[in-house]
Amino acid sequence: MNKITIAVVGAGTVGGGVIDVLTKEHAKLKREGVDIVLKTICATKKPKASDVVIPSSTTFTTDIKKIYEDPEIDVVVELISNVKVGGEIILQSLRSGKSVVSANKAALAEVYPEISKILKENLNLYVGIEAAVAGGIPVIAPLIEHMCSDSISRISGILNGTTNFIITKMEKEGLAYQDVLKEAQALGYAEADPKADVDGYDARSKLSLLMQLAYGIHPNKDISTTGISDIADIDFEYARMLNATIRCLGVGAREGNKVSGFVSPCIVSNTSNFAAITGATNAVSIDSKYLRNTFLVGQGAGRYPTAVSVISDVVRIAKGSCYSIAPRDNKVPTFVQDYQGQFYIRLYIQDGLGIVEKVGNICKKHKVSIDAILQLPVGTKDILPFVITTDTTMLSKVKKIVDELEKLSFVKGRPFMMPIIKAG
Amino acid sequence: MNKITIAVVGAGTVGGGVIDVLTKEHAKLKREGVDIVLKTICATKKPKASDVVIPSSTTFTTDIKKIYEDPEIDVVVELISNVKVGGEIILQSLRSGKSVVSANKAALAEVYPEISKILKENLNLYVGIEAAVAGGIPVIAPLIEHMCSDSISRISGILNGTTNFIITKMEKEGLAYQDVLKEAQALGYAEADPKADVDGYDARSKLSLLMQLAYGIHPNKDISTTGISDIADIDFEYARMLNATIRCLGVGAREGNKVSGFVSPCIVSNTSNFAAITGATNAVSIDSKYLRNTFLVGQGAGRYPTAVSVISDVVRIAKGSCYSIAPRDNKVPTFVQDYQGQFYIRLYIQDGLGIVEKVGNICKKHKVSIDAILQLPVGTKDILPFVITTDTTMLSKVKKIVDELEKLSFVKGRPFMMPIIKAG
Fold first, then answer.
1. pTM metric for this prediction
2. Which 281-300 residues of chain B touch chain A by CB within 8 A?
3. A93: buried, middle or exposed (CB in 10 Å: 19+, 13-18, 0-12)?
């Protein structure tokens, strides 16, 4: 029997779930050979008994120092939402000689360089992050352990359940973004301040962690990130004309010694596995040399799915068999902003003569060949949505085209651009 | 650095893949902290150099005893196709104090009771079976490690790539089973003797291993197994009328203290994740208390995908961090043949008066309520395909109905029955 003593920091949705599952499944976990002792719970205030039942053998404290200083505690389970404080707790716990399990993706992405330094010098410490990416889906352990002999060429995912909930509701019910957002907030699927989700920052943190494990690089805030708020309902109609739909993806792709990555709404072919992922579900698609494609689907968030991932890491650490997220000694590829692909550009125009010609000239000037021009008979003469899709080209060229299109007198506002994803 | 010395038994498709990947990725695996020494390869005859390159530092032998007797060998990687011999090698290796990694699902399912006895008495030995179920998909480790705090209520999967290749080609191109089978054989997707695949026995072995891990029971040959050879092209048209398609699934479901399981072609709703799985791809769907649903998709077979799974187990054993497939001490549920569900029954009839009434009376007698009666205007008056679907009932009742239907004068041959799967 492997006995391990832990502290849980944060007693909100996920923390409460972890405490609950640890209590209810203690006997089951013992049958797995692990006796998890929940010694201390730390939070800014004591949770209501109706939300979280603190076991009688567990101490509650508001003082995090008590945890750092307690020599009995082997693992700190960090489950708060604050990024800065979360990062400090992760690092201070490690410096106090304790392993860490965390679901705080933004904090982990932020302090990863410091984490990796500590791990390289302290081979007895582990940082478990299974719950930080794609919630309840087993993705971190498979990526590190299952694919240890394989080489990943592309990792992409629906990494944020809130945005997928909103997008797929827009898709299904033909509603506008703002209306669906309000509904999602009322239902508790979106936060009152939805920025981290809808602007793509949550997905960016997760993508950066995945890219660290897949490629050994940690681009974090360098990852170009586009949120979902500029998606118009008309984009779904144009997507349908392309036998496709829209999903917000985080994508990290390797070509030789270069890795590119972005978070963005994408035009996704209906034949892609991603097209079938609806609601708050998450999905991760991994292309690799030997396994070809592995596609993992499940609950991206939520009290209990996240708790299961957290506890799996605690058990791994208890058994001394946790994967290592420390970087491997190897030459790593370079992160680049530019990447090859096909793109969708939607502009609102004031209808008139010679529009196709002018748009065509701009594309020609940048040597980008147009794949399709789409104009549905919707809108008014003054504000008509108009779409072009490109053949395979570079993002940098398409950005220049978008800049020039924006300056045209008949173009209203900034054109909206999305990568087109055919596989995965 | 964890150094481990292994022997590979079998140098066919998968064995050759393992040898190839171990050679090519030796440096990469060392960066993961594992030095895998391939000391011995054993096969009935030496493979051609054009198929498998045996490293110069590796010994080739046709004598398996040399492996059992070699004290340097830590792990025997058993990758032959013969069930009986495979089982003997697995057990004899364990008895010789060596851990085993095997992709031989039929052998593992056959000797699992003996394996489990040996593992309980030898806690330093491991049996890695990641490659034995769903080829390259990470499913065994997630099931045991990721879900260690969770409780599985249902595990189902497209567990055989050959049958899924045949079924989805029938579906897409409207071809008859025999024609597609011949094509699959010509392409190498099906064996010259396709029995293990098309009759469902391969999927049965895999399902039994999954049920062992999910529920602690090992029904193996008690699992009712129906192959795909009786699927008619018309069944796809009827499925379409039900907004569904056909997939061959292995399903193991727990209800309280009872577990039922079967391998059978199923009517699968188009909204199910399984409906999108085409070609030789495999997929496993796991319903559980906390994670709700986890859906894992990837290559179910093939030289390199299987090799990656095999090597992941060797690495786990080298690191001393392999999952244990030994049964946990816990009261296990009982395996039962009967289960609740909706069913599809297709009969060929000679058209005449009063048919619906007679069929209806038989269903009424067994207290099974009919959900739909379908009769497409195809076939001749003498041999018309006719379909009924039931409301939720028990399999045992539907079997009695099928027996009685078969005896009716206007019914030609044995009616063909499939469970209807809506979720998953």
1. 0.96
2. 289-299
3. buried
Beta bridge partners, A154, equal: A253, A287
For residues B298 and B135, is the Cβ–Cβ distance under 8 A? yes
Q: Could you tell me where the DSSP H helices lie in A269-374? A: 303-318, 355-365
Which H or E element spans position B262? strand B258-269
Residue A304 contacts B where some CB pair is shorter than 8 Å: yes
Distance CA A262, CA B369 (A): 53
- Provide the sign of the torsion angle of the four alpha carbons B308, B314, B316, B318, taken in this order: negative
Mean of per-residue pLDDT scores for chain A: 95
ipTM summary value: 0.96
Mutate one of B146, B150, B168, B328 to test the A interface: name it (highest A CB count within 10 A): B146
Of A348, A131, A170, the C-alpha closest to A265 is A170
Query: Could you give the 3-state DSSP secondary structure of residue B93?
Result: helix
pLDDT < 70: residue spans in chain B: 424
With an 8 Å Cβ cutoff, is B230 touching chain A?
Answer: no
A346, A232 Cβ separation under 8 angstroms = yes
Rounded CA separation B352/B318 (Å): 69
pLDDT tens-digit series, residues A10-23 = 999 999 999 999 99
A191 touches chain B (CB under 8 A): no
Residues of B in Cβ contact (< 8 Å) with A140: none
Contact B259, B336 (CB under 8 A): yes
The answer to whether residues B402 and B417 touch, using CB atoms and an 8 Å cutoff, is yes
* DSSP for B349-404, written as a single string: E---TTHHHHHHHHHHHTT--EEEEE--S-SBTTBEEEEEEE-SEEHHHHHHHHHH
